[in-house]
Amino acid sequence: MIASLNIPMWQAWKEEGDIEAKKRLIEQYLPLVDYVTNRMAIGLPKNVSKDDLASNGVMGLIDAIEKFDYCRGLQFETYASWRIRGAIIDGLRQGDWVPRSVREKAKKVEEAYQKLEQQYLRSVSDAEISNYLNITEKEFTTMLQEIAVTTVCSLEDPLREEESETRLSLLVDERAKNPDHKVHEVYLKDSLVNGIEKLTEKERIVVSLFYYEELSLSEIADVMSLSPSRISQLHSKAILRLRGALSKHKDQLMQY
């Protein structure tokens, strides 16, 4: 899907304000909306309309086209994907698609991973998490199934409920570097490395195939010869561990 920039078209839109050029850019990159929408639809409740996701995604694409600086030599597809995902997630939040009780469960599991893995300095087992939460392993598995939908967009969620800064904002520097950038970069990389090292082998494979090879969860299930529900659980646990690592990263930055 990645293609070289059509510089003349971008120049017509950005330098001359040519609305027709803008429309052609929107049409050219509409397949990107479908791609992001289909990936984000995986694991979402059935009552969430894919058409609604796509509509919000188009708004994100338009926003990306309006704000993208083609002179910087960046890949538009990457930048637009962030904007499209953000617009879709904003729409999901407005629709209150995840019950508060489910978010609270996700937060409890995330905090459990963060506390226990910081305490033991290793990856903790399902049994240890279950014991910490005072539930059975079967109940923990059920909980993971319930909160799976909250991990699909976890990097777009606020670091704190009362803040607008997201985890993804720590990864994306849309403009020039600011004086705090290097500190953020060092601690973020350190936190992510530590977090990934604590993942189990299967969790690392799922993360790699989903986020780097861009396979769907069902495709990963075929590759790993596991059920889609099992892949969903592995994905959820991996993301909850990494969310805990990034939350710790935020706490460290607060000390500076």
UniProtKB/TrEMBL annotation:
UniProt xrefs under PANTHER family: RNA POLYMERASE SIGMA FACTOR FLIA (PTHR30385:SF7), SIGMA FACTOR F FLAGELLAR (PTHR30385)
Keywords: Cell projection, Cilium, DNA-binding, Flagellum, Sigma factor, Transcription, Transcription regulation
BP terms from Gene Ontology: DNA-templated transcription initiation
Record has Transcription regulation as a keyword: yes
Protein name: RNA polymerase sigma factor for flagellar operon FliA
Annotated organism of origin: Paenibacillus algorifonticola
GO molecular function: DNA binding; DNA-directed RNA polymerase activity; sigma factor activity
Stretches assigned to coiled coil: none
Domain RNA polymerase sigma-70: start-end pairs: 216-242
Entry keyword annotation includes Transcription: yes
Pfam families: Sigma70_r2 (PF04542), Sigma70_r4 (PF04545)
NCBIfam families: FliA_WhiG, PRK06986.1, sigma70-ECF
